[in-house]
Specification:
- The chain is built from 1 helix and 44 strands.
- A 7-stranded mixed sheet has the order 34-35-36-37-39-41-43, with no helix packed on it. Strands 3, 4, 5, 8, 11 and 12 form a 6-stranded antiparallel sheet that branches.
- The radius of gyration is 32 Å and the shape is elongated.
Length: 631
């Protein structure tokens, strides 16, 4: 087994706390990363690349990169001799002179971040060691040190991990300390004697394996002489024992099929880049599986690939994956964190169904579309950032994400499939039912909103339509009962706002209002669903003189309106009823409506036969006395 050491010496630590509770970390020596040049491990070729940076913050979870000095960023640097084109123990990794870093008021946390990429052809393990003035860290009471050493337990070929050391100042007096961080990396050995191999196929586990049952099992990807790729079949590992917790599949294996389906012992799996498809149900019901390391090279995650992996808490889908099939992670009830690459183009239905604890989703910059149903019903998701490269947000993409509090729609989004023209009864509904959504930012440059996009976002209080917007989708804000303020930015060529109403300039049509709107006197048409399901619109509704037409569903389900007064200029009331096509009479569902006063001497044309249907409390319709016969 080949080894080498990487030593990191972090500068002298001087913490000063006075009356102002200010701590200072002052460096009196340099911090070094270097490879021990006395070891030569080629041709086995243990080859790593290191980079790092320093962060500071108010809590361990809320730290930010410090950019005040160039020395706070390091690398990337590798132990690779470019002249020999090989890893070389005689080629040192450069030193990292960190310099001084200070704790400041209300920022008593400093984080050292080290990113490690394993470019070796095999899996390695790292062992970190932290001392302060050559003492065990537990002996120092003024500084609390935490780390995530578990990420070093196995680093697959071409895999990158991030190791963190977090320092919390807990003392009250000045101290001087040297913090030392060191790593020892070694190859995780594989034993061909653990396997029964026939015709280059691993068919079973051997008696040697049964006797020794190692905690970490490395599955070779090539024959022992390194010349031939190996394969595994569906039942190769049915004999895994409970002592084996970690499976590392090496480069060369291309298909894992059902080899680990329903295994109850595995806690960690590393899948090589030579596997391009994780077949359906490959790890279904591996209930103790906690860690999945996927490699670039993977293209497809199939049906139920990780279904019912109840112990899985995070998943990072690597760049290169294009397809995630229906139900791929269904039933991962403890999954909390998901990273999505920019390469996704095909997303199935119910991928995260019953993953009720997902609260963090990271979308890679470069992602082009958020497909239909991608994050629907993730009720604990509070925030998400949509990359500026996204051009399409699909149907039900964030449906019923009831904890989502804010969203910014970038200007790049120009497609909200489907639309009424594409599918009868099919609408976008991307954020429908996001009942905690209180902030929506529509970026300047955005030109269109989808149909029903923010339906029933009952916590949304204000909306600003950018000057670039030329199409506010059908019922885009239906049921947003808390909406009180609507503005259109100056310079919009199609819309303007007045009295918390959005008006189409060329037609003088009111296309969107809210519960605090007063209908302006200069409009002629109240458009379909302009006041859609606003319970907050209460009492008397006065439609001003000049309005000639009230379109279908203009005040649909406004259950707080009690009296309506219509102007003398009104010539047309739409009265179609076709719920399949979402066409309703103008006042359909106004359940508290008691009276309608029509002031026009000439009865308005009723475009349909159900003008006043579903108005159970309507008791009086008033018309001019001189026009009773006409009515």
């Amino acid at each position: 087994m080949k080894r080498f050491r990487i030593i990191s010496l972090i500068s002298t630590l001087c913490l000063c706390l006075g009356i102002m509770a200010v701590g200072v970390w002052a460096a009196t020596s340099t911090a070094l990363f270097n490879v021990n040049g006395n070891l030569k491990y080629y041709p086995e070729g243990l080859f790593v690349e290191l980079s790092g940076h320093i962060e500071r913050g108010t809590t361990a979870e809320d730290t930010h990169v410090i950019n005040s000095k160039p020395s706070y960023t390091y690398g990337p640097v590798a132990n690779f001799d470019s002249e020999l084109d090989e890893p070389s123990g005689n080629f040192p990794i450069e030193e990292w002179a960190i310099g001084s870093v200070s704790f400041i008021p209300n920022a008593k946390f400093i984080k050292l971040v080290v990113t490690i990429t394993n470019y070796s052809d095999f899996t390695i393990a790292g062992t970190p060691n932290i001392t302060i003035d050559n003492q065990d860290i537990q002996a120092v009471t003024e500084i609390s040190v935490t780390e995530n050493s578990n990420v070093l337990s196995q680093i697959g070929s071409l895999q990158t991990v991030e190791y963190n050391v977090i320092l919390e100042f807990t003392g009250t007096t000045e101290i001087n300390k040297n913090l030392n961080v060191s790593f020892e990396f070694e190859e995780i050995a594989k034993n061909y004697d653990y396997f029964v191999i026939e015709n280059n196929i691993i068919t079973d586990l051997s008696d040697t394996y049964t006797t020794e049952a190692p905690e970490i099992l490395v599955i070779p990807g090539y024959s022992e002489d390194g010349t031939t790729q190996l394969q595994i079949n569906n039942y190769s590992f049915s004999g895994l024992k409970s002592e084996t917790k970690t499976i590392i599949i090496e480069e060369g294996i291309t298909d894992i099929s059902y080899a680990f389906n329903s295994n109850l012992y595995i806690e960690s799996i590393t899948i090589p880049s030579t596997v391009t498809v994780i077949m359906d149900s490959a790890f279904d019901s591996c209930e103790n599986l906690k860690t999945v390391n996927l490699s670039q090279g993977l293209k497809t995650i199939d049906y139920y690939a990780f279904g019912n992996c109840r112990s899985l808490t995070s998943i990072e889908i690597p760049e290169g994956v294009t397809t995630v099939v229906n139900d791929a992670f269904q039933g991962c009830i403890n999954l909390e964190s998901v990273s999505i690459p920019s390469t996704i183009t095909d997303w199935g239905q119910n991928v995260f169904m019953l993953c009720e604890n997902i609260n963090t989703i990271s979308l890679a910059e470069g992602l082009k579309s958020i497909p239909s149903d991608m994050f629907s019903n993730l009720t604990k998701l509070e925030n998400i950032s949509i990359p500026s490269t996204v051009t399409s947000i699909g149907q039900y993409a964030f449906l019923n994400c009831t904890s989502l509090k804010s969203i910014t729609i970038p200007s790049s989004v120009n497609d909200w499939p489907p639309t009424m023209d594409q599918m009868v009864g099919g609408y976008n509904n991307a954020f429908s039912g996001c009942t905690s959504l209180s902030e929506v930012i529509l970026s300047e440059g955005l030109t269109t909103l989808g149909d029903y996009t923010f339906e029933d976002c009952v916590s949304l209080t204000n909306i600003t339509i950018p000057s670039s917007m030329t199409n506010v989708g059908f019922r885009a804000f239906s049921g947003c009962n808390s909406l009180t303020t609507i503005n259109v930015e100056e310079g919009n060529s199609k819309y303007y706002s007045e009295n918390n109403c959005v008006i189409e300039s060329s037609t003088k049509k009111l296309v969107l209002g809210c519960g605090t709107s007063t209908i302006p006197s200069n409009i002629e048409i109240i458009g379909s669903f302009a006041f859609d399901s606003y319970d907050s619109l209460k009492g008397d509704l006065v439609v001003p003189e000049g309005v000639v037409e009230i379109q279908n569903s203009a005040f649909v389900n406004c259950s707080g309106i009690t009296n309506i007064i219509l102007p003398t200029t009104l010539t047309s009331i739409y009265a179609n009823l076709n719920s399949f096509r979402n066409m309703y009479p103008s006042f359909y569902g106004c359940s508290a409506l008691e009276s309608i006063t029509i002031q026009a001497n000439t009865p308005p044309t009723l475009n349909g036969s159900s003008a006043f249907s579903d108005l159970d409390n309507l008791s009086n319709i008033y018309v001019p006395a001189e026009a009773v016969d006409a009515y």
